[in-house]
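Lab notebook, bench 4. The sequencing result for the construct came back, and we need a structural model before the next group meeting so we can plan mutations. Quick request posted to the team channel:

Model the 3D structure of this chain.
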Amino acid sequence: MFRPKLPDVPTLPTPTVTHQQTQAPVASAGRPIAPYVGIGAGAVAAVVAAVVVVGIVLTALLAAVAVSAVSVAIAAVVLRSLVNGAHKH
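Done. Here's the predicted structure in token form:
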């Protein structure tokens, strides 16, 4: 879902080397790499956004659990004091 669709990378033809050649073959210019860098940055931004969203959701869930635990603890203290007060009378 978050993965961008990358264009097909063309395969470069393999250079043919003769035995009499003394210089290394020069690589063809081909397509520039700039569009691929932009796609990579977009993919990284999408992953970072997903991690931030997951972090926010987990933090909200942790806060909800903490609030619930505090309220249950307060209710337990109140009930204990009511039960102890009833036994004293």
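The mean pLDDT is 78.
Will bring this to the meeting.
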